[in-house]
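Quiz preparation item.
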Protein backbone atom coordinates (compact mmCIF):
# COMPACT_ATOMS: atom_id res chain seq x y z
CA UNK A 1 0.00 0.00 0.00
CA UNK A 2 1.57 3.28 -1.10
CA UNK A 3 1.57 6.27 1.20
CA UNK A 4 0.89 9.36 -0.88
CA UNK A 5 0.82 13.07 -0.09
CA UNK A 6 -1.55 14.96 -2.40
CA UNK A 7 -0.73 18.66 -2.39
CA UNK A 8 -3.74 20.59 -3.61
CA UNK A 9 -6.01 17.64 -2.93
CA UNK A 10 -9.06 19.80 -2.22
CA UNK A 11 -9.15 21.26 -5.74
CA UNK A 12 -10.90 20.02 -8.86
CA UNK A 13 -8.34 17.47 -10.07
CA UNK A 14 -6.78 16.79 -6.67
CA UNK A 15 -10.08 15.85 -5.03
CA UNK A 16 -10.87 13.29 -7.74
CA UNK A 17 -7.35 11.92 -7.29
CA UNK A 18 -7.72 11.58 -3.54
CA UNK A 19 -10.94 9.66 -4.00
CA UNK A 20 -9.33 7.32 -6.56
CA UNK A 21 -6.26 6.71 -4.37
CA UNK A 22 -8.53 5.90 -1.44
CA UNK A 23 -10.48 3.46 -3.59
CA UNK A 24 -7.20 1.82 -4.65
CA UNK A 25 -6.26 1.27 -1.02
CA UNK A 26 -3.53 3.92 -0.75
CA UNK A 27 -2.83 5.68 2.50
CA UNK A 28 -3.52 9.26 1.38
CA UNK A 29 -2.96 12.62 3.03
CA UNK A 30 -4.19 15.87 1.51
CA UNK A 31 -2.38 19.16 2.04
CA UNK A 32 -4.30 22.20 0.85
CA UNK A 33 -4.51 25.86 1.92
CA UNK A 34 -8.18 26.01 0.84
CA UNK A 35 -7.50 29.23 -1.09
CA UNK A 36 -9.48 27.74 -3.94
CA UNK A 37 -10.15 24.17 -2.86
CA UNK A 38 -13.02 22.88 -0.74
CA UNK A 39 -12.63 20.90 2.48
CA UNK A 40 -15.77 18.89 1.76
CA UNK A 41 -14.28 17.71 -1.54
CA UNK A 42 -11.66 15.65 0.32
CA UNK A 43 -13.54 12.39 0.64
CA UNK A 44 -10.94 10.22 2.32
CA UNK A 45 -7.64 10.10 4.16
CA UNK A 46 -6.07 12.72 6.42
CA UNK A 47 -6.41 16.40 5.75
CA UNK A 48 -3.92 19.14 6.66
CA UNK A 49 -4.71 22.79 6.00
CA UNK A 50 -1.50 24.61 5.23
CA UNK A 51 0.32 26.85 2.80
CA UNK A 52 2.90 25.17 0.57
CA UNK A 53 5.18 28.18 1.13
CA UNK A 54 5.39 27.37 4.87
CA UNK A 55 8.53 25.26 5.22
CA UNK A 56 8.04 24.39 8.90
CA UNK A 57 4.57 23.06 8.12
CA UNK A 58 5.92 21.09 5.13
CA UNK A 59 8.59 19.56 7.37
CA UNK A 60 5.99 18.55 9.93
CA UNK A 61 3.79 16.91 7.28
CA UNK A 62 6.62 15.17 5.40
CA UNK A 63 8.01 13.82 8.67
CA UNK A 64 5.06 11.42 8.57
CA UNK A 65 6.91 9.61 5.77
CA UNK A 66 5.59 9.21 2.22
CA UNK A 67 6.40 7.04 -0.78
CA UNK A 68 5.40 9.75 -3.23
CA UNK A 69 4.01 13.26 -3.60
CA UNK A 70 1.44 14.35 -6.17
CA UNK A 71 1.35 18.10 -6.72
CA UNK A 72 -1.85 19.82 -7.88
CA UNK A 73 -1.51 23.13 -6.01
CA UNK A 74 -0.96 25.59 -8.83
CA UNK A 75 -2.50 28.74 -10.13
CA UNK A 76 -3.89 27.95 -13.58
CA UNK A 77 -5.35 31.03 -15.22
CA UNK A 78 -3.41 32.13 -18.26
CA UNK A 79 -4.84 35.66 -18.36
CA UNK A 80 -4.16 36.25 -14.67
CA UNK A 81 -0.60 34.99 -15.12
CA UNK A 82 -0.02 37.75 -17.66
CA UNK A 83 -1.46 40.40 -15.31
CA UNK A 84 0.16 39.09 -12.12
CA UNK A 85 3.24 37.07 -13.08
CA UNK A 86 4.82 37.45 -9.62
CA UNK A 87 1.94 35.53 -8.08
CA UNK A 88 2.51 32.70 -10.57
CA UNK A 89 6.30 32.53 -10.27
CA UNK A 90 6.04 32.64 -6.48
CA UNK A 91 3.49 29.87 -6.13
CA UNK A 92 4.06 27.66 -9.13
CA UNK A 93 7.87 27.85 -9.13
CA UNK A 94 9.27 29.10 -5.80
CA UNK A 95 6.83 27.21 -3.60
CA UNK A 96 7.23 24.07 -5.71
CA UNK A 97 11.01 24.29 -5.22
CA UNK A 98 10.37 24.58 -1.48
CA UNK A 99 8.24 21.45 -1.63
CA UNK A 100 10.98 19.59 -3.53
CA UNK A 101 13.61 20.73 -0.99
CA UNK A 102 11.45 19.52 1.87
CA UNK A 103 10.94 16.20 0.08
CA UNK A 104 14.70 15.81 -0.29
CA UNK A 105 15.23 16.55 3.40
CA UNK A 106 12.74 13.84 4.31
CA UNK A 107 13.96 11.30 1.76
CA UNK A 108 10.82 11.31 -0.40
CA UNK A 109 12.09 10.54 -3.90
CA UNK A 110 9.02 10.20 -6.12
CA UNK A 111 7.05 13.13 -7.52
CA UNK A 112 4.09 13.40 -9.89
CA UNK A 113 3.71 16.83 -11.36
CA UNK A 114 0.73 18.46 -13.08
CA UNK A 115 2.15 20.07 -16.18
CA UNK A 116 0.28 21.44 -19.14
CA UNK A 117 -0.08 21.69 -22.90
CA UNK A 118 0.65 25.39 -22.33
CA UNK A 119 4.36 24.48 -22.07
CA UNK A 120 4.32 23.92 -25.85
CA UNK A 121 3.10 27.40 -26.81
CA UNK A 122 1.85 27.91 -30.36
CA UNK A 123 1.65 24.44 -31.96
CA UNK A 124 4.04 23.81 -34.82
CA UNK A 125 2.19 20.60 -35.76
CA UNK A 126 -0.77 18.58 -34.55
CA UNK A 127 -1.34 16.31 -32.72
CA UNK A 128 1.38 17.35 -30.27
CA UNK A 129 3.76 14.64 -29.10
CA UNK A 130 6.52 14.83 -26.50
CA UNK A 131 9.12 15.82 -29.12
CA UNK A 132 7.28 19.04 -29.94
CA UNK A 133 9.38 22.11 -29.00
CA UNK A 134 8.40 23.68 -25.68
CA UNK A 135 8.13 27.44 -26.18
CA UNK A 136 5.42 28.71 -23.83
CA UNK A 137 3.84 32.03 -24.70
CA UNK A 138 2.61 33.09 -21.25
CA UNK A 139 3.90 33.15 -17.66
CA UNK A 140 1.63 30.24 -16.65
CA UNK A 141 3.20 27.95 -19.28
CA UNK A 142 6.67 29.18 -18.36
CA UNK A 143 6.20 28.37 -14.67
CA UNK A 144 5.28 24.80 -15.56
CA UNK A 145 8.15 24.39 -18.02
CA UNK A 146 10.61 25.73 -15.43
CA UNK A 147 9.53 23.07 -12.94
CA UNK A 148 9.84 20.37 -15.63
CA UNK A 149 13.42 21.52 -16.24
CA UNK A 150 14.20 21.65 -12.52
CA UNK A 151 12.90 18.09 -12.19
CA UNK A 152 15.22 16.84 -14.95
CA UNK A 153 18.19 18.39 -13.10
CA UNK A 154 17.03 17.01 -9.74
CA UNK A 155 16.85 13.49 -11.06
CA UNK A 156 20.42 13.71 -12.36
CA UNK A 157 21.78 15.34 -9.22
CA UNK A 158 19.64 13.94 -6.40
CA UNK A 159 17.96 10.87 -7.86
CA UNK A 160 14.51 12.40 -7.34
CA UNK A 161 12.35 10.60 -9.89
CA UNK A 162 9.29 12.27 -11.36
CA UNK A 163 6.50 11.95 -13.87
CA UNK A 164 5.30 15.15 -15.51
CA UNK A 165 1.81 14.83 -16.98
CA UNK A 166 1.03 17.54 -19.50
CA UNK A 167 -2.72 17.90 -19.39
CA UNK A 168 -4.66 19.10 -22.35
CA UNK A 169 -8.23 20.11 -21.27
CA UNK A 170 -9.32 18.43 -18.03
CA UNK A 171 -13.11 18.13 -17.95
CA UNK A 172 -16.05 16.10 -16.67
CA UNK A 173 -16.81 15.02 -13.13
CA UNK A 174 -16.85 12.05 -10.79
CA UNK A 175 -19.05 9.39 -12.49
CA UNK A 176 -20.60 8.69 -9.07
CA UNK A 177 -21.64 12.32 -8.76
CA UNK A 178 -19.78 13.12 -5.54
CA UNK A 179 -17.29 15.60 -7.01
CA UNK A 180 -17.03 18.09 -9.84
CA UNK A 181 -15.61 21.39 -10.97
CA UNK A 182 -16.07 24.31 -8.53
CA UNK A 183 -13.71 27.05 -9.66
CA UNK A 184 -14.44 30.58 -8.57
CA UNK A 185 -14.47 32.38 -10.86
CA UNK A 186 -15.17 29.66 -13.40
CA UNK A 187 -13.28 30.21 -16.65
CA UNK A 188 -13.45 26.78 -18.32
CA UNK A 189 -15.63 26.14 -21.32
CA UNK A 190 -17.62 23.03 -20.35
CA UNK A 191 -18.82 24.20 -16.91
CA UNK A 192 -19.64 27.63 -18.34
CA UNK A 193 -21.65 26.11 -21.19
CA UNK A 194 -23.53 23.95 -18.69
CA UNK A 195 -24.20 26.94 -16.44
CA UNK A 196 -25.75 28.61 -19.49
CA UNK A 197 -27.86 25.46 -19.99
CA UNK A 198 -29.03 25.34 -16.37
CA UNK A 199 -29.87 29.04 -16.27
CA UNK A 200 -27.09 30.04 -13.87
CA UNK A 201 -25.72 32.21 -16.68
CA UNK A 202 -27.66 33.98 -19.42
CA UNK A 203 -25.45 32.73 -22.27
CA UNK A 204 -22.06 31.34 -23.26
CA UNK A 205 -19.66 33.72 -24.94
CA UNK A 206 -17.66 32.19 -27.79
CA UNK A 207 -14.15 33.59 -27.98
CA UNK A 208 -13.60 33.97 -31.72
CA UNK A 209 -15.22 32.45 -34.81
CA UNK A 210 -12.50 33.32 -37.28
CA UNK A 211 -9.92 30.65 -36.47
CA UNK A 212 -8.49 28.44 -39.16
CA UNK A 213 -10.58 25.43 -38.07
CA UNK A 214 -13.56 23.69 -39.77
CA UNK A 215 -16.21 25.86 -38.04
CA UNK A 216 -13.98 28.79 -37.11
CA UNK A 217 -13.97 28.12 -33.35
CA UNK A 218 -11.00 26.81 -31.34
CA UNK A 219 -10.37 23.08 -31.15
CA UNK A 220 -9.32 21.42 -27.88
CA UNK A 221 -8.69 17.91 -26.59
CA UNK A 222 -11.01 17.30 -23.61
CA UNK A 223 -9.98 14.53 -21.24
CA UNK A 224 -12.21 13.09 -18.54
CA UNK A 225 -11.03 13.77 -15.01
CA UNK A 226 -11.20 10.04 -14.17
CA UNK A 227 -8.94 9.20 -17.11
CA UNK A 228 -6.57 11.93 -16.05
CA UNK A 229 -6.47 10.52 -12.53
CA UNK A 230 -6.00 6.96 -13.77
CA UNK A 231 -2.88 8.20 -15.60
CA UNK A 232 -1.55 9.48 -12.26
CA UNK A 233 -2.23 6.09 -10.71
CA UNK A 234 -0.20 4.41 -13.46
CA UNK A 235 2.56 7.00 -13.08
CA UNK A 236 2.70 6.23 -9.36
CA UNK A 237 2.93 2.51 -10.06
CA UNK A 238 5.75 3.09 -12.54
CA UNK A 239 7.75 5.13 -10.02
CA UNK A 240 7.08 2.59 -7.28
CA UNK A 241 8.36 -0.07 -9.69
CA UNK A 242 11.64 1.80 -10.10
CA UNK A 243 11.05 3.56 -13.45
CA UNK A 244 13.05 6.70 -14.21
CA UNK A 245 11.64 10.16 -14.82
CA UNK A 246 9.41 10.76 -17.80
CA UNK A 247 7.10 13.43 -19.20
CA UNK A 248 3.89 12.41 -20.96
CA UNK A 249 1.29 14.30 -22.96
CA UNK A 250 -2.17 13.50 -21.71
CA UNK A 251 -5.27 13.86 -23.84
CA UNK A 252 -7.64 11.72 -25.90
CA UNK A 253 -6.04 12.63 -29.20
CA UNK A 254 -9.33 13.90 -30.55
CA UNK A 255 -10.16 17.56 -31.03
CA UNK A 256 -13.57 19.19 -30.56
CA UNK A 257 -14.42 22.76 -31.44
CA UNK A 258 -16.10 25.18 -29.05
CA UNK A 259 -19.21 24.97 -31.25
CA UNK A 260 -19.16 21.15 -31.09
CA UNK A 261 -18.97 21.34 -27.29
CA UNK A 262 -22.02 23.64 -27.27
CA UNK A 263 -23.92 21.35 -29.68
CA UNK A 264 -23.06 18.29 -27.57
CA UNK A 265 -24.18 20.09 -24.41
CA UNK A 266 -27.53 20.93 -26.03
CA UNK A 267 -28.02 17.27 -26.95
CA UNK A 268 -26.99 15.95 -23.53
CA UNK A 269 -29.01 18.45 -21.50
CA UNK A 270 -32.00 18.76 -23.82
CA UNK A 271 -31.90 22.51 -23.17
CA UNK A 272 -31.17 25.29 -25.57
CA UNK A 273 -28.07 27.34 -24.87
CA UNK A 274 -27.83 31.00 -25.85
CA UNK A 275 -24.59 31.88 -27.59
CA UNK A 276 -22.99 35.30 -27.85
CA UNK A 277 -20.08 35.61 -30.24
CA UNK A 278 -17.18 37.66 -28.98
CA UNK A 279 -13.61 38.47 -29.92
CA UNK A 280 -10.72 36.05 -29.61
CA UNK A 281 -9.20 35.60 -26.16
CA UNK A 282 -5.53 36.59 -26.14
CA UNK A 283 -3.12 33.66 -26.21
CA UNK A 284 -5.55 30.99 -27.47
CA UNK A 285 -3.99 28.74 -30.14
CA UNK A 286 -6.49 27.58 -32.81
CA UNK A 287 -5.94 23.90 -32.13
CA UNK A 288 -4.45 21.92 -29.22
CA UNK A 289 -4.66 18.15 -29.55
CA UNK A 290 -2.47 15.60 -27.80
CA UNK A 291 -0.63 12.67 -29.21
CA UNK A 292 -0.74 10.49 -26.11
CA UNK A 293 0.76 7.36 -27.73
CA UNK A 294 3.74 7.40 -25.36
CA UNK A 295 1.75 7.03 -22.15
CA UNK A 296 -0.46 4.41 -23.80
CA UNK A 297 2.60 2.42 -24.82
CA UNK A 298 4.79 2.86 -21.76
CA UNK A 299 2.22 2.82 -18.96
CA UNK A 300 -0.67 1.05 -20.68
CA UNK A 301 -2.96 4.03 -20.13
CA UNK A 302 -6.40 3.67 -21.75
CA UNK A 303 -9.06 6.35 -21.48
CA UNK A 304 -12.36 4.95 -20.26
CA UNK A 305 -14.52 7.99 -20.99
CA UNK A 306 -13.09 9.32 -24.26
CA UNK A 307 -16.51 10.19 -25.64
CA UNK A 308 -17.29 13.92 -25.40
CA UNK A 309 -20.98 13.27 -24.68
CA UNK A 310 -20.05 11.20 -21.61
CA UNK A 311 -17.65 13.88 -20.37
CA UNK A 312 -20.38 16.50 -20.76
CA UNK A 313 -23.02 14.24 -19.21
CA UNK A 314 -20.98 13.69 -16.05
CA UNK A 315 -20.29 17.42 -15.78
CA UNK A 316 -24.01 18.08 -16.30
CA UNK A 317 -25.03 15.74 -13.47
CA UNK A 318 -22.71 17.74 -11.23
CA UNK A 319 -24.08 21.08 -12.48
CA UNK A 320 -27.66 20.12 -11.69
CA UNK A 321 -26.99 18.27 -8.43
CA UNK A 322 -29.64 19.03 -5.90
CA UNK A 323 -32.04 20.39 -8.55
N1 LIG B 1 -13.86 29.43 -24.46
C1 LIG B 1 -14.92 30.16 -24.96
N2 LIG B 1 -15.74 30.79 -24.06
C2 LIG B 1 -15.56 30.73 -22.72
C3 LIG B 1 -14.49 29.96 -22.21
C4 LIG B 1 -13.65 29.32 -23.12
O1 LIG B 1 -15.12 30.25 -26.17
O2 LIG B 1 -16.34 31.35 -21.98
C5 LIG B 1 -12.98 28.72 -25.40
C6 LIG B 1 -11.51 29.12 -25.30
O3 LIG B 1 -11.24 30.20 -26.15
C7 LIG B 1 -10.81 27.83 -25.72
C8 LIG B 1 -11.75 26.72 -25.29
O4 LIG B 1 -13.02 27.35 -25.07
O5 LIG B 1 -10.69 27.79 -27.12
C9 LIG B 1 -11.33 26.04 -24.00
O6 LIG B 1 -11.05 27.04 -23.04
P1 LIG B 1 -10.79 26.71 -21.52
O7 LIG B 1 -10.61 28.03 -20.81
O8 LIG B 1 -11.85 25.80 -21.01
O9 LIG B 1 -9.43 25.88 -21.51
P2 LIG B 1 -7.97 26.23 -22.13
O10 LIG B 1 -7.98 25.66 -23.51
O11 LIG B 1 -7.79 27.71 -22.08
O12 LIG B 1 -7.05 25.48 -21.22
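Solution:
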Amino acid sequence: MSKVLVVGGAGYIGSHMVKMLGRQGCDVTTLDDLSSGHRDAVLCGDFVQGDMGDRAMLDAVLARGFDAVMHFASFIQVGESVQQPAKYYQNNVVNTLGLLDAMRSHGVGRFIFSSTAATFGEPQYSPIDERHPQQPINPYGRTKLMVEQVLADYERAYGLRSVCLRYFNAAGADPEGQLGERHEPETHLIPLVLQAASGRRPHIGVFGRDYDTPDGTCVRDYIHIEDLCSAHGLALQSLMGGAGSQAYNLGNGQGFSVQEVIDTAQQVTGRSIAVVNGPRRAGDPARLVADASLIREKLGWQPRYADLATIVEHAWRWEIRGE
